[in-house]
Design goal:
Layout: H1 6-24, H2 27-44, H3 48-51, E1 58-63, H4 68-82, E2 89-91, E3 96-101, H5 103-138, H6 158-173
Antiparallel strand pairs: 1-3, 2-3
Length: 187
Amino acid sequence: MDKNSNQYESIKNKLLKLQALAEKGYKGEAENAKRAIESLCAKYGITLEEILCEEQVKRYEFEIGRYSYMLTLFVHCHGVVTNSRELKYRQRSRSTIAVDLTPLQYAELCSLFEWHKANFLKDLQAMQKNIVEAYVNKHNLFAQRDDDEEAPDIELTPARLRHIQAILAMQGELGDNKYYKMLEAAK
């Protein structure tokens, strides 16, 4: 198999992820990962040893996005994988960086960063929704209700109570700026 082909890189990435799982996974996961490694190696005529050249360092690219908080998240994931507080990288584009790693570190970092990136974005989206609600509540941005119109009853479940507490906590952290209507200029 051509080691420069995209298929080889794809298989290599799968094998590296499976190897990480075989080493750190629980009993059933580890056993299944080992079997999957043997199957892939036999199918493609490669050995795990040639994939796991642990001393060989290569430059790998990562799509981290354009936001500085994603770079911060990547730096922390890199630190966990490499056990280093220092990250040297090259900026390939506004959203891509290149880092020198061993193949095993690359596989671990890919998996760890992608999971945390997706999880962080999910949490960020929920927080954005909550902060809008907190802002609207703090600045009382509601249409006036008619006197005869009743507010709907909403059941206060434990989840609803946690949501209200989160909104109140965020509301307390927002600035205290106030809007004042501008008076018409005298003619």
